[in-house]
């Protein structure tokens, strides 16, 4: 069954893991690499959080294609279809 990803829920999830992010500054169009200090540790943390919450493993080849919060939401929805 397809899972609909709630924008606010995903933003809350991300901001709960990365303390220095202001949830009011994030929109679906926000670039992940600008929201999160992009490095290998933070990308791993994001991947683990997404897998834990949604049961979706971010594939390495797909990971670099996901630019925005909206694209991440769509990816999760597609993988849970």
User: Any idea what the radius of gyration is?
Assistant: 12 Å
Q: Tell me the CATH architecture.
A: Orthogonal Bundle
Count the helices. How many?
Answer: 5
Mean pLDDT: 88
The CATH class designation is Mainly Alpha
CATH-defined superfamily: ACP-like
CATH topology: Non-ribosomal Peptide Synthetase Peptidyl Carrier Protein, Chain A
Number of domains: 1
Percent of residues in helices: 55-70%
Low-confidence runs of at least 5 consecutive residues:
none
What sort of overall outline do the alpha carbons produce when their principal axes are compared? Answer: globular
Count of strand segments: 0
Largest sheet: none
Layout of strands and helices, then pairs:
Layout: H1 7-17, H2 32-35, H3 40-54, H4 60-63, H5 69-79
Would you mind describing this structure in some detail?
- The chain is an all-alpha fold.
- It has 5 helices and no strands.
- It has a single domain (7-79), classed as ACP-like (Non-ribosomal Peptide Synthetase Peptidyl Carrier Protein, Chain A).
- Helix content is 56%, strand content 0%.
- The chain is globular, with a radius of gyration of 12 Å.
- The model has no long low-confidence stretch (mean pLDDT 88).
């Amino acid at each position: 069954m397809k899972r609909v990803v709630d924008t606010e829920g995903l933003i809350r999830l991300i901001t709960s893991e990365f303390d220095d992010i202001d949830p009011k500054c994030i929109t679906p169009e926000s670039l992940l690499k600008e929201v999160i200090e992009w490095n290998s540790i933070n990308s791993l943390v994001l991947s683990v959080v997404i897998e834990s919450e949604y049961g979706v493993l971010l594939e390495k080849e797909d990971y670099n294609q996901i630019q925005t919060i909206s694209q991440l939401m769509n990816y999760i929805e597609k993988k849970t279809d």
